[in-house]
Amino acid sequence: MRTSCLQTLDRLEIGLANGGGDCPRSPGFVLTILAPDASQPGAPNFRELVLKDLGQAAPKYPLETLKSLPDKSLPGFERHFAENAKNAPWPFGQLLVRYGSAGTLPVIRREWDRSHLHWDCQSRTSFLAFFLKVDAATGKRVFEQAMNERVNNGCYLFYPEEFFQLFPALPRR
Hints:
It is a single chain. The chain is mainly alpha-helical. The chain has 10 helices and no strands. The chain has helices at residues 2-11, 27-34, 46-54, 63-66, 75-84, 89-99, 105-115, 121-134, 136-149, 161-166. Helix 5 packs antiparallel against helix 6 and helix 6 packs parallel to helix 8 (121-134). The protein is globular. The relative contact order is 0.09. Residues 12-42 have low confidence and may be disordered.
């Protein structure tokens, strides 16, 4: 059922809102169906469908599904995530946090430098988490820059406490 549901969603332009095929109409139930481990025996095409959707400029599957692959990184997708962050920073920032590695740090950093002031707070936070994850020194520098940029924009007035719990050496200002 999961595979045919994903194949149906893959054909839809609107995505989850319509349901269809073997997909229940309740979005909450669809999320429950799509979120299990990609290696579950009953879903032979699950990984291929998720990878195909990850390669789109506007993925249709829920973020929980896109982040459910067991891979630690997806090197073939990192540049794609960075290039699409300009138009959709929140989902692609989340995908970089989940699958990103230091291999594309220069590309991601260039996109951050070009675009982050135009992004919402959640998107910026995802990218800060990516930097801190893949290179602590760069992450700290970018985080300090972001803390300085919070003056008069309101975005950085309150950072999630998780940053300070995960990275206690970051200065509090």
